[in-house]
Specification:
182 residues; alpha+beta; Aminopeptidase; 5 helices; disordered N terminus
Length: 182
């Protein structure tokens, strides 16, 4: 019976890999937000969020976003809006059994309201639909607040990647969330 279920689950996984994200309105911390897949026209907003969150730095360029959004590989890129303004986003791509979070950012004014956690849970849902065994990400070794949030979501520390961030040679901490079968 388990083999039949796994086969059925595998066939469904093929369907879900390229399934578009269903936009939705969500309530978080008593506020209403709108979530949808990122479009090419949104890149300017994403770059603006990066500048604010990363103190003027642009971890991802316009070209990097363009390449990722147009990739044929399974991926999920979502943004979250409040009153029509893009205030955060997340990106994820599938590598075998790993759903790798490529970037996540929420404007400082909206941090601490559960938006980043919600976006990560959406990636988790996507990862499970794509039969991933884990979700991975890198975080600056100095970003203790982000590490705390990731740990609260079930991520564990894996390895330190020396000089990962090229602009200042800062190390990254790789963190992993192991997905359990339910």
């Amino acid at each position: 019976m388990l083999k039949k279920f796994n086969l059925f689950h595998s066939i469904l996984g093929l369907f879900f890999k390229n399934r578009p994200y269903d936009e939705q309105t969500v309530m978080l911390a008593g506020q209403e937000y709108f979530v949808r897949a990122i479009k090419l026209d949104d890149i300017k907003d994403l770059l603006s969020i990066e500048r604010e969150v990363y103190a003027g730095e642009l971890p991802w360029t316009k070209t990097a976003f363009l390449v990722e959004l147009q990739s044929a590989e399974p991926h999920l890129y979502l943004l979250i809006q409040k009153d029509g303004q893009t205030i955060g986003f997340i990106g994820c791509r599938i590598f075998g059994q790993d759903a790798h979070i490529t970037n996540v950012a929420v404007l400082t004014k909206y941090q601490g309201k559960g938006l980043g956690s919600f976006l990560i849970r959406e990636v988790q849902r996507f990862a499970k639909l794509n039969q991933c065994e884990m979700i991975s990400l890198e975080v600056r070794i100095s970003n203790k607040n982000a590490q705390r949030v990731y740990r609260q979501l079930g991520f564990v520390s894996n390895t330190i990647k020396p000089d990962y961030y090229t602009e200042n040679k800062e190390d990254a901490l790789e963190m992993i969330l192991y997905l359990k079968e339910e």
